[in-house]
Amino acid sequence: MSGETLHIHFLGTAGALPTPQRNPPCIMIRRGSDTLLFDCGEGAQQQMMRARCGFTINAIFITHWHADHFLGVFGLVQTMSFNGRTEPLTIYGPEWVHEFVKTLRQVARFNLKFPMESVELNPGSWVRFDGYTITAFGVNHGIPSLGFVLEEDSRPGRFNREMAIALGVPPGPLFGRLQRGEPVMAGSGDDRREVRPEQVMGRKRPGRKIVYTGDTRAIPFENLEIAHDADILIHDATYDESETARAAEFFHATAGQAGEAASALSARALALVHISSRYTDNTAHLSDAQKKYGGTILAPNDLDMIEITFRDE
Ligand SMILES: [Zn+2]
Ligand SMILES: [Zn+2]
Predict the structure, then answer these.
(1) Which residue intervals of the chain bear CATH 3.60.15.10?
(2) pTM assigned to the model
(3) Is 130 annotated in the active site?
């Protein structure tokens, strides 16, 4: 459906080490009745409870196999089983996802009550959902690692009611047929003629787009067509600019580099995540990113939630 709500819950915004304020990486995206997890760090279940999201997860996407991004899956799967889940759960991730799910099955001594599948994704792989697509792209983190783009299908253009009436189409069922893309016959006698949808429908409108990099060094995003023009870019911002060398050494990005990426990609907003445990406030991160990017910049705390609205509303 075109009018679904779209929310991002920042359940975990820490880097590799949690802090008393920040949990390991976990981003929940809820679109309509779908709930997807992107990374599932340790403590994700309690964060889901605090966010009052429930445990009805449709799919889990893991960016890479560093423990801060996946340890929460073990407990979450057990809880889902305790709760009587019967729907299949698919875990998507880069290579080793099959080994991960196999290991989980082997070491977990509980009776898994629902089918659990693993699907390996590579850069360019995509997964289709009802009304949107998740596409994986490659990032630079020293091991096989993915970022993800959630992109909604484009929406039909606006219906020009006045034009339809002027062309002789009476308000009523014929309007609906035109809106569904069907030509209709209007007028009567000698004046009877076909009215085509393109005469009364505006241009298609883009759906909403969310880009999540997972962990990555600064990468030359301008060639990454799929990630352009997002409503929000959620980018690794482990360090501030004073640690640029360290960021490169450990395959992470600085807040300034996240800002550069947001500019290169023409993102409409930027969220800085994966904040190193060395920082107790994010003032430097925000000002570093502001020097490189003029759009809206967020440095979310754990449990912050934002709604992504349609651009023309
Ligand atoms: Zn990490
Ligand atoms: Zn990592």
Answers:
(1) 6-155+205-307
(2) 0.92
(3) no
Q: Which residues contact 282 (CB under 8 A, 6 or more apart)?
A: 272, 275, 299
Query: How many angstroms does the Cα of residue 104 sit away from the middle of ligand 1?
Result: 20
The CA 69 to ligand 2 mean position distance, Å, reads 7
Query: Which is the CATH superfamily of the domain at 6-155+205-307?
Result: Ribonuclease Z/Hydroxyacylglutathione hydrolase-like (3.60.15.10)
Tell me the two tokens of residue 81. Answer: 């089983």
Token pair listed for 173: 């069922």
Q: How far is the CA of 3 from the centre of ligand 1 (A)?
A: 34
Nearest listed ligand to the Cα of residue 18 = 1
pLDDT in tens, 42-82: 999 999 999 999 899 999 999 999 999 999 999 999 999 99
Ligand nearest to the CA of 146: 2
Ligand number with the minimum distance to the CA of 17: 1
Residues 6+ apart with CB under 8 A from 79: 45, 55
Express each pLDDT in 116-136 by its tens digit. 999 999 999 999 999 999 999
Residue 89: CA atoms inside 13 Å, Cβ hemisphere, count?
A: 25
